[in-house]
Amino acid sequence: NIAKVSIMPRGDSLGHVKMRLARDVGVFLETASVCSNFHSSAKIARWHDQIVCLLAGAESERLFTPNRHIREGAKPDLHASYDVLARLSGGEELRAAFKWLQIRAKSLVARPVHQRMIGDLAKALLSKGTLSGKEAIAIFRDSHYQYSVERTARLKPLLRSSAGSSGLRTR
After folding, report:
1. pLDDT, tens digit (0-9, with 9 covering 90-100), for 103-136
2. Which of 47, 48, 98, 145 has the fewest CB atoms within 10 Å of its CB?
């Protein structure tokens, strides 16, 4: 769903992620209030996942630059997230769902593998300024693979020692 990632300033934003989600959000916002079948559990879960993606940018910034407040550039993501949620639920359920999705975004960004992926993407952006969606996805995949290889290498000695003490044989 990523079309482009950039750290080039644009308006109040110091960077942005252009997602193909925008077209889908427009269709959703136009039809959600008139089509009752838009509220199936699976569709709500997919929209929740999209909202977590929107919120992850602000959470990444908060994690990597903890002394800063959310920049103006994150406000459209927060407003879009809240707007979509408001069409799915209301009142107390809306506030709870928004808080829960913020917690999910924060949790995802805090995982070491995701921090590595975000850091590698940031390095590439500092070098190039703008990346296509395909380039960003390739960086994420490479970063995830490298993290997995390094993690496996760190865990192998532990697995051997625990298998040896339990009588299991390892290769």
Report:
1. 999 999 999 999 999 999 999 999 999 999 999 9
2. 145
Q: Which residues, in sequence order, are bridge partners of residue 5?
A: 17, 131
Nearest to 74 by CA among 60, 93, 88: 60
Task: Determine whether 140 is exposed, middle or buried from the number of CB atoms within 10 Å of its CB (0-12, 13-18, 19+).
Answer: middle
C-alpha–C-alpha distance, residues 16 and 10, integer Å = 8
Compute φ and ψ for 67, nearest 5 degrees.
-85, 0
Residues 93 and 139 sit within 8 Å (Cβ to Cβ)? no
Q: List beta partners, residue 4.
A: 18, 132
pTM: 0.73
